[in-house]
Amino acid sequence: MPAPQKASFAEFLWNREEKTVLGRTGLSWFKITVFYIIFYSCLAAFWSLCLFIFLQTISYKEPRWNTNTGSIIGKNPGLGFRPRPPAERIESTLVMFNEGPGENWGHWVSELTNVTEKYKQVPEKYKKNMKTCTYGDEMEGDDFCVFNIAELGTKCSKDRNFGYEAGNPCIIVKLNKIFNWRPDVYATSDDLPDNMPESVREVIARDFTEPGSNEINKQNVWITCEGENPNDFENIGQVNYYPHPGMPAYYYPFQNQPGYQSPLVAVEFASVKRGVLLNIECKAWAKNIFHDRKERKGSVHLELMVD
Residue 92 CB: number of other CB atoms within 10 A? Predict the structure, then answer.
């Protein structure tokens, strides 16, 4: 019995007798091409329609869930600090260096320089919305209060290497942004929590209250930094705040204004004990800021060691 005849591969590519290419006639190829053009066009149109409908529900100005509608990240802002460690130790919160010229504090100074320079180099398109504010002002629309980086003073400045060369290091702290969050400020010095550091309570009573009364006339989110443990408290020494231990309430709420500048507080550790590892906790204070050391709510932790 003769073996069945097998079509060669060349014949499969082009069959002269049946006039087919890859087993299909020209009409067959035309029909299947038209079918897939229509199929994928309908698929693309359906996907585009779904995307269009979805985008109508999204605001580029504000998140769907915020402080008014139940923010997923909550209503309790945390604190952040700079300088941060190098990339290879990104999870660390340790700031460690040797004082003196030419020592290993270059990274910390570079990090703080990057932060402060951004406040000086504001893109032109945002400047029209920048306003110089005073206590009692409120912003509308895309306007926001400009933060003058010069208010951090000379001791915590690039010209002084932010105190690292002299062994009096500065850090910069700021509140994390929560859309539409407003601080519920303390109206009088009697409202201040009993566990707020006495040194800051004294500053508030001296510089921020009406003469002859206990009414706080310059409303701020107050900032404090102190040792976490008794040993840290003894070794931390003098802590100075620039321009003062607070962030003016007129910077809030943050409403995603283009170019918005978060207020900063520079904290100088002016007489920290050398050769001792310190655990430091910085806190933000307002009636609607709650503290939880374990969850780092309303606070931030860092370690500091100066050799």
Answer: 13
Which amino acid, residue 63? P
Give the span between the Cα atoms of 292 and 193, in whole angstroms. Answer: 15
Task: For tokens 């550091």, name the residue.
Answer: 197
Q: Count Cβ atoms below 10 Å from residue 297 Cβ, excluding itself.
A: 17
Could you tell me the two tokens for 21? 């290419």
Nearest to 203, CA basis, from 242, 154, 147, 148? 242
Q: Please name every residue paired with 305 in a beta bridge, in sequence order, or none if there are none.
A: 96
The pLDDT value given to residue 6: 54
Q: Which two tokens stand for residue 303?
A: 């370690």
Asked if 235 contacts 273 with a C-beta cutoff of 8 angstroms, the reply is yes
pTM check: above 0.85: no
Res. 5: pLDDT tops 70: no
pLDDT one-digit tens code per residue, 257-297: 999 999 999 999 999 999 999 999 999 999 999 999 888 88
**Is residue 258 classed as helix, strand or coil in its secondary structure?**
coil
CB 87 within 8 Å of CB 291? no
